[in-house]
Amino acid sequence: xxxxxxxxxxxxxxxxxxxxxxxxxxxxxxxxxxxxxxxxxxxxxxxxxxxxxxxxxxxxxxxxxxxxxxxxxxxxxxxxxxxxxxxxxxxxxxxxxxxxxxxxxxxxxxxxxxxxxxxxxxxxxxxxxxxxxxxxxxxxxxxxxxxxxxxxxxxxxxxxxxxxxxxxxxxxxxxxxxxxxxxxxxxxxxxxxxxxxxxxxxxxxxxxxxxxxxxxxxxxxxxxxxxxxxxxxxxxxxxxxxxxxxxxxxxxxxxxxxxxxxxxxxxxxxxxxxxxxxxxxxxxxxxxxxxxxxxxxxxxxxxxxxxxxxxxxxxxxxxxxxxxxxxxxxxxxxxxxxxxxxxxxxxxxxxxxxxxxxxxxxxxxxxxxxxxxxxxxxxxxxxxxxxxxxxxxxxxxxxxxxxxxxxxxxxxxxxxxxxxxxxxxxxxxxxxx
Amino acid sequence: xxxxxxxxxxxxxxxxxxxxxxxxxxxxxxxxxxxxxxxxxxxxxxxxxxxxxxxxxxxxxxxxxxxxxxxxxxxxxxxxxxxxxxxxxxxxxxxxxxxxxxxxxxxxxxxxxxxxxxxxxxxxxxxxxxxxxxxxxxxxxxxxxxxxxxxxxxxxxxxxxxxxxxxxxxxxxxxxxxxxxxxxxxxxxxxxxxxxxxxxxxxxxxxxxxxxxxxxxxxxxxxxxxxxxxxxxxxxxxxxxxxxxxxxxxxxxxxxxxxxxxxxxxxxxxxxxxxxxxxxxxxxxxxxxxxxxxxxxxxxxxxxxxxxxxxxxxxxxxxxxxxxxxxxxxxxxxxxxxxxxxxxxxxxxxxxxxxxxxxxxxxxxxxxxxxxxxxxxxxxxxxxxxxxxxxxxxxxxxxxxxxxxxxxxxxxxxxxxxxxxxxxxxxxxxxxx
Lengths: 433, 433
Hints:
Two copies of one chain form a homodimer. Chain A is α+β, with helices and mostly antiparallel strands. The first copy, chain A, has two domains: 280 residues, 2-Layer Sandwich (BirA Bifunctional Protein, domain 2); 97 residues, Anticodon-binding domain (Rossmann fold). In chain A, 40% of the residues lie in helices and 20% in strands. Chain A has 17 helices and 16 strands. In chain A, a hairpin with a 5-residue loop joins strand 3 and strand 4. At the A-B interface, helix 1, strand 1, strand 2, strand 3 and helix 4 of A face helix 1, strand 1, strand 2, strand 3 and helix 4 of B.
């Protein structure tokens, strides 16, 4: 017997039912916003990632040579693929382009709770608008998806900032500072000691006093103070943009979930504007649930025309952790509307009833294993059948079937032609009146 | 710019909309039959396939060593994975186990029409029942899925047979015949000359006269003649089982699509009982659309308890070819219920209308790019908006919005509080009466 590979999961029906329900909420919310579904390859040229050396993602890449000698990789993220797709059909596509998709990605990482080597994400992106309304639409979708899952403002918050607030502030202290390194330091600041944090800022090029002042301004998060301290057009513009996004978020109903948090800097270097991360409000799930933001340079960097972009990609595993913590993860159980039980030579009539119920859209099982009355009833119970229709030989001779409510055990006989007859969804209750 | 890898496809929104519609039909049909969705890893131990040497599938495997030194493969099919899953939880699972899933698989094959290196299948299987009713349920599901897509008996047929009819007949001619080789010859018989076919049968161990008689009996497909010629319990039992499956198929409404065809032997050696292939009735799509059958030995062969099994796995690419040929492939276009157009300082009210329409489940877009009236109307047209709601400053001052039917161009003004107000899905028609 072969074992499953570490970091990969099998989803059996009960777990999958919960997962499907959650995914349906997430995706139907995206559809209602007019995001359009796309589907993308599992494999891409490995060079998409290896050409940008030094990235953590390269270390975690499942890369290999295919039988045609291509250097390929299992995609660890969607963004380079959608960038490729936007560039490939850039001229024909009406802007803004609004796309979503749910699929697995792969990274060879340390396996831990909420982090597998195969992990599912729903990517939601807008290409072709630099307006705050686009950032707000991403926030609005994310808020609606989370509240659609049953979460509330007591469970989650969006910590929001703008890359240029930090970048501009850093430059105002020292024009030669390594902004990327300093922003990475901010990104880590909550997980390391203040001493270590300040040391990283000094390593990035700030002198010690500047590092302290910078760290204090960031921690306080007062936009007016930051604007005053920086006294730079870049910071002023960034704060203005951040405020415009928050105003637009108010219009779509997402403002109440947003907290300004200048520490929120996102690890990925390609973000260019507003960035945000979703956190568990209680802090029980300590790391970021997911993050997103604006990445206006990416399409151009892969050979496309200048194309502003903003997006988010919730990972389903951390989302599940958050929902479980909040007690709103869907029940892990399969559901069945009807079990049609056949006893004796009644298979034809049972099949007719099953067929008519299925035509009405219901989940219907019937015997496919030639089992006894008792074994069938036990099976109906195991699949959580709501109603069992017993099609027995003697009943049938009298023109009747028995309708059994599985929760109460109550049952009664009804005319066979009334099942389902004109009823859309007949149950014990339908006939008990 | 990186190029897409050969044999892999990008699905843009319009194509994807058609594909999603088709997949929804296929999957909702499976759900109504009580098949339960599962999800499975993209990677498995390569040994799952390489341990059985000589298989064509091994030549086409995307296999490599992962960073942990594991020999892994992108799964080229689902069956070994579900077998592993059934064995892993065999004791806890209520039988029969009825599972389905839709996902991509990967084979390094020659790329041609309807055959990519990344291809999507919906696998539908029943484990734990050896009864003809289980085989019939698979046929019933397949027939309902195809008719659900808009196909009829004029478009497709299931060619059905039983492995042991050929196996038993071959043994009755010569006990030492290489049955697997001879069945492979039958599988190829329609694609090669009669001479070449007979030669393959002789290679498999039949003498020339026996090969001719065998070939004629198979081509005629008269079950009674085959039973008489073989005079073996194995063939008699196989024919009896095949007939029982056809009777059960009649009960579920699938008999009318089935044609007995002893040539239908399926290339895969793991089939043990009834086998069937779906063909284009007109012959325009010349190869099999998909195939399936009974594989009672597989679970045991991977270390599990004896577990009868039957299943089918339609590939979406060939299914699409069949649907296109029949003119029933869904339209490749995106759909939008509402575009909410905002002119002047009306973003707040526009957002309110968009939000309320989305809460009612509709697909709604609004401006996220700060565009002019004309550009917005053009965009609304490009996304096939059915209704555009124009929220203008002057209109709004008068407490009104304009409702425009995009197909006819007709428009009228309605009270802003009536949109959507109590209406579930207000359109121009709602107010035109």
